[in-house]
């Protein structure tokens, strides 16, 4: 796994009493043509986006964050990590970064966080690329329900058994072709004492009750959307891509990635990055020349956004 696929050391910011690991990548020799924010899912961190972020940063300023309770934001403070709290943090983080209508790429529960910030926290977003996202019912495996019922028991597992469980769980998200070094990279934050407790706590706090208000308002999305999905996603079936598109306004295009599972940014980073870059260039051409500091400034027509 070459170094170019890693993120730089995080820059920590204090936001609403929490210490959050953030990352900013940008072109070395030219002005960025746009700003894009990447939201990760569970049970990983911004590391899942690293190869895509590196490639996009050749022309754009790229912002990433490890949600509290994940990755480099794991701490002994054990903050609330439910989806309502995370979406509010994301809306506040966009303000902290002073970003006006950025493009947003969101994976897994990052989709619920980004959509929730847009629909329920009035975050202005220029466009959304939703990748294998957690939004529609049903979601949450029998393992989720088991952890929710026995969180303290799992948190007390011997360290080696916990590490093996997390490794197998993360490996099971792919289509069986993910490099073992990536599995180790995604597993390692959970293998500390704080990480072990936070792993089971974040599962226990995730609830479909927090995504249903988002689903009910999907017709209110006021930015262009594109959906990407691993055709062999073992966690969330690819059929949800078409179902999600039907809930959204406008002409929503769908990109399915052959032979990829749930971890598309690592399993098929080149194919995914090419589609994302094409999408970002497409929506950039239709952006207003001047963007106002409100959601209306992000609004563009939907009819031209199928690619």
β-strand amount: 5-15%
Can you identify the CATH superfamily?
A: Alpha/Beta hydrolase fold, catalytic domain
The total beta strand count reads: 8
In the CATH hierarchy, the third-tier topology is known as: Rossmann fold
Describe the main β-sheet briefly: 8 strands, mixed
Mean pLDDT: 91
CATH class: Alpha Beta
- H/E element sequence: EEEHEHEHEHHHHHHEHEHH
- Estimated helix fraction: 25-40%
What is the topology, as strand order, of the major beta sheet?
A: 1-2-4-3-5-6-7-8
Shape: globular
Please report the number of helical segments: 12
Layout of strands and helices, then pairs:
Blueprint: E1 11-15, E2 18-25, E3 35-39, H1 50-56, E4 61-66, H2 83-96, E5 103-107, H3 109-120, E6 127-131, H4 142-149, H5 151-155, H6 159-171, H7 180-187, H8 193-205, H9 212-215, E7 225-230, H10 239-247, E8 253-257, H11 264-267, H12 269-285
Parallel strand pairs: 3-4, 3-5, 5-6, 6-7, 7-8
Antiparallel strand pairs: 1-2, 2-4
Helix pairs in contact: 1-12, 2-3, 4-8, 6-7
What can be said about this structure in brief?
The chain is α/β, with parallel strands linked by helices and 307 residues long.
Q: What does this protein look like?
A:
The protein has 307 residues and is α/β, with parallel strands linked by helices. The protein has a single domain, classed as 3-Layer(aba) Sandwich (Rossmann fold), CATH 3.40.50. 37% of the residues lie in helices and 15% in strands. The chain contains twelve helices and eight strands. It has an eight-stranded mixed β-sheet, with helices on both faces. Strand 5, helix 3 (109-120) and strand 6 (127-131) form a beta-alpha-beta unit.
